[in-house]
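ARCHIVE CARD
Drawer: 12
Card no.: 0347
Subject: one protein chain, sequence and derived structure
Cross-reference: see card 0346
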Amino acid sequence: MPVSKLSPAALLLVLLAISYAGGTIAPAHEGEHTNGKTTDNPGIGLEEKIGKKISKDAILADEKGAKRLLGDLIVKPTLLLPVYFTCRTTCGIMMANLARAVNDVPLALGRDYNILAFSFDGDDTPENARKARDNYSAILKKPAPIDAWFYLTGNMNEIVKITGSIGFSFKKGKGGDFFHPNTLIALSADGTIIRYLSGPDFLPFDIAMALTEAEKGTPSISIRKLLSYCFSYESEKKTYALKGVRIITGVLLLVMAVILFLLLRKKNPVHK
């Protein structure tokens, strides 16, 4: 049957079917993620465990050397940054970039979320943590509240509890440096792993989106109805991207619905 002879309702159904078949208006799958294990460096990589719980029973030391139960520090949406404080390359860059991004995140550090910079080097000490805190806290435009951004160290037994639960694999080289993934992890208040964001650069928008998901408590793209439709989390790039096709398709469908309504109204006028 020629397209010109199709009824408005049938035409709309055809267009809708084409759109859905092409995947242009379907939201991203909830909890979608990829396995980031590296192949060139066995034992080093990131196996995402979105929807799983972090090991909250690990005991670490804060910058003052006080023992802290990890679960006691995760009481609101939390950003976990696995680093080591004596790193001479990307770890320092990540901590600095995170501090700069925090300055532009439209959420309040300490009120809306916390940050845990966690060392996976068993030789790191609270003194190393204090130095890191002093260096990177200076980048913040507003001083962080005392219980907002922690720099944590621990022994290897406690470290592997955490790294194992987040799928973070690392290896120490001959020179004492570590080979490791560069990632920032968003956690909900109950310790659920919500998002992984790739470093060493972190965008304020990506952080805000991940924290909003963490506030919701489930690893879903549907943060807000409008934003979740227009933006999708790209697991390979570990970032959120604007889906222009979705927006255009939504507008076109709205226009077609209005046209269909007008055509049907014209065909079946209301008699007074």
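Annotation on reverse: The radius of gyration is 24 Å. Confidence is low (pLDDT under 50) at residues 1-39, 221-233.
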